[in-house]
Q: What sequence folds into this?
């Protein structure tokens, strides 16, 4: 039986300080292509030495994607490799190498129309693809973006970026899990000022504040906070993803939540689940929840 620590996210993302530091130096000294080549060997290490993540990927491919044993073995390696590629890409872009990549957009004009409406906006993403790859395209909008994340993640990543003189975006961080009331007030003030609040809607820490949704054919728990805030504040809601495609191309996908009248948080989470399902089915190797996402007992 899985331990309680395996049944929910711990509040820290895979890809620690050493990983960021290693790829930062590799990209700087050897280039992006060499970093990709090194990944081919490095990912082999993670298969036996990251057992929790390996079990999660294996279960995902066997139970959610319904793959056979041999196909799941192959996908286990490929899954780690694609994750490594997005990590390299993230570091390269933060180091000012965005021009080495190509970019495509879905519903971009409508997205900008909403951002320019003068209202506050809630953007909800997920741990799929590499949302940070869009940083360079927000331009002046970036000064109005508030990213909600756990303080431990923010501090760890910030230390690495600063030590490598990486480009820092204008985004503001609202750190949760330190003072929840203060964080809520920051979000409310930002929305009232016509700014944008960005969440990832697929991970929770507090089991008492969750909503149930069907993701890839299985029942999962999602954090209730992003959806309740969006419903209560009556602001436009956008589901945002940045997905890696072939030949160093990223596709930015913006899906607008639609509803009549005042939405309920249940309506929003249902639309989000449907959106996330479409993305995960199209980009199955970019599902980066490396824990037992569906084990809710």
A:
């Amino acid at each position: 039986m899985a331990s309680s620590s395996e049944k929910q996210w711990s509040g820290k993302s895979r890809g620690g300080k050493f990983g960021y530091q290693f790829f930062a130096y590799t990209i700087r000294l050897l280039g992006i292509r060499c970093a990709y080549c090194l990944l081919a060997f490095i990912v082999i290490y993670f298969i036996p030495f990251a057992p929790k993540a390996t079990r999660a990927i294996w279960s995902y491919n066997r139970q959610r994607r319904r793959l056979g044993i041999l196909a799941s073995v192959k996908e286990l390696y490929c899954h780690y490799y694609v994750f490594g590629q997005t990590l390299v890409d993230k570091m390269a872009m933060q180091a000012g190498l965005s021009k080495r990549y190509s970019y495509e957009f879905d519903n971009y004009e409508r997205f900008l129309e909403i951002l320019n409406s003068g209202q506050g906006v809630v953007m909800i993403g997920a741990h799929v693809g590499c949302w940070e790859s869009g940083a360079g395209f927000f331009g002046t909008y970036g000064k109005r973006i508030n990213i909600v994340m756990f303080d431990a993640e923010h501090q760890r990543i910030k230390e690495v970026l600063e030590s490598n003189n990486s480009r820092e975006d204008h985004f503001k961080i609202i750190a949760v899990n330190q003072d929840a009331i203060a964080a809520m007030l920051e979000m409310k003030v930002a929305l009232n000022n016509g700014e944008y609040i960005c969440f990832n809607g697929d991970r929770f820490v507090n089991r008492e504040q969750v909503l149930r949704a069907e993701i890839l054919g299985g029942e999962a728990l999602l954090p209730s906070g992003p959806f309740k805030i969006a419903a209560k504040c009556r602001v436009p809601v956008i589901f945002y993803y940045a997905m890696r495609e072939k030949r160093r191309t990223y596709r930015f996908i913006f899906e607008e939540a639609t509803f009549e009248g005042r939405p309920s948080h249940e309506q929003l989470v249902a639309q989000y689940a449907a959106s996330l399902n479409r993305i995960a089915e199209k980009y199955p190797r970019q599902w980066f929840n490396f824990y037992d996402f569906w084990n809710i007992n």
Observations:
- Residues 12 and 153 are 6 Å apart (CA to CA).
- Residues 69-94 form the longest helix (26 residues).
